[in-house]
User: Which sequence fits this backbone?
């Protein structure tokens, strides 16, 4: 195979297969979040909708804080091009649902945040920037 064709093939492969995505947690559906009702929704209903919380904390007043989250990072194919000349960086998404439940396991309050962002890395790894676009849903 001629050298120029091998170079084109390898470069194309980097762009096609270089886009790596990693996930952590269960994606949180904003439509499901909007069905949460203070004083009505139970912990069992939350766990059916969102899975097990990633963290639970007992608060001094006897209430509990339940935290559900989802994180996604998608590397751009150009990240793998030498010297960062191919549009290096990543697209990110972070979702967080924090719910306060009473001793009776009924929702007292909650907050949902869905943030998307982009990290750009300049040539030779210099001049990295990160921008975020947050969306917060509160009852």
Assistant:
């Amino acid at each position: 195979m001629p050298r120029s064709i091998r170079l084109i093939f390898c470069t194309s492969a980097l762009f096609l297969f270089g886009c790596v995505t990693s996930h952590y947690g269960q994606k949180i559906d904003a439509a499901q979040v909007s069905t949460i009702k203070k004083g009505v929704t139970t912990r069992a209903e939350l766990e059916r909708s969102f899975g097990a919380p990633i963290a639970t904390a007992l608060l001094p007043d006897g209430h509990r804080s339940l935290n559900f989250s989802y994180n996604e990072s998608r590397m751009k194919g150009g990240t793998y091009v030498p010297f960062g000349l191919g549009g290096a960086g990543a697209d990110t998404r972070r979702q967080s649902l924090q719910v306060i439940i009473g001793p009776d396991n009924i929702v007292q309050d909650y907050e949902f945040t869905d943030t998307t962002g982009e990290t750009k890395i300049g040539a030779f790894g210099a001049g990295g920037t990160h921008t975020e676009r947050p969306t917060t849903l509160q009852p």
Notes: The chain has one domain: 3-137. The mean pLDDT is 78.
